[in-house]
Amino acid sequence: MYRLLPALLFCVIACSACGPRLSPFTQRLYDEQGWGEDELRRIQFYLSEDVVLQRELRNDRTQITRGTVKVINGREVEQLVFKRNTPGVFTFQPKTNRVAISFEDDADNFLVFGPNPKNGDRYTLLASDWTRSAGKVTYAGQQWQVSSADAFASLLIPLKRLRTGDTRGRVVGGRKL
Predict the structure, then answer these.
(1) Pairwise pLDDT comparison (169 vs 28), residue with the higher score
(2) Where would one find the signal peptide in this protein (predicted)?
(3) How many domains does the chain have?
(4) Residue 5: is it exposed, middle or buried by C-beta count within 10 angstroms (0-12/13-18/19+)?
């Protein structure tokens, strides 16, 4: 058993090093690169944190789509959970400095993100009517509540920075007798 522990530890470290390095999608990065909608469509986006959407079900108009139903404080609530590192794709720009990202096959189901100056201009989840405890988002044509704890969930992208233009130099081959 103890002989397997070092091998297992090595496998975990090796596998974690193989994944893409994710960096925050920020307004500065967006401006520096000058990306248009065509370029944004080719970028794989990821969520930095879990996001949980909730809406109260009313018995007269109940239609459960893809979420799970829970009873919270005696009320039936539908929840949609977007796990950390869930991949998403760009669908459109609702307006300047806003991106709609879809995490499902249906492009009409999207969340809107925009730069947040309180979070280093990272593109974070946007909601209307924020209170201390929650905000409202529209998802799949319906109103949902999102916890204020999810307010700083932001977009990540795989980013590999090459410093070819930043440095000058040469590789020294060495000297032998």
Answers:
(1) 28
(2) 1-19
(3) 1
(4) exposed
Do residues 20 and 156 make contact, with C-beta atoms less than 8 angstroms apart? no
Outline where DSSP puts E strands in 7-50: 22-24, 45-47
Residue 90 placed within a domain: yes
C-alpha 124/C-alpha 85 separation (Å) is 14
pLDDT > 70: percent of the chain: 72
* Residue 11, helix vs strand vs coil: helix
pLDDT digits (tens, 9 = 90+) for 151-166: 889 999 998 765 555 5
Residue 86 lies in a domain: yes
Per the domain annotation, does 66 fall within a domain? yes
In a domain, 174, yes or no: no
Distance CA 129, CA 147 (A): 12
- Counted residue by residue, the chain has a size of 177
Q: Residue 128: give the domain boundaries.
A: 22-158
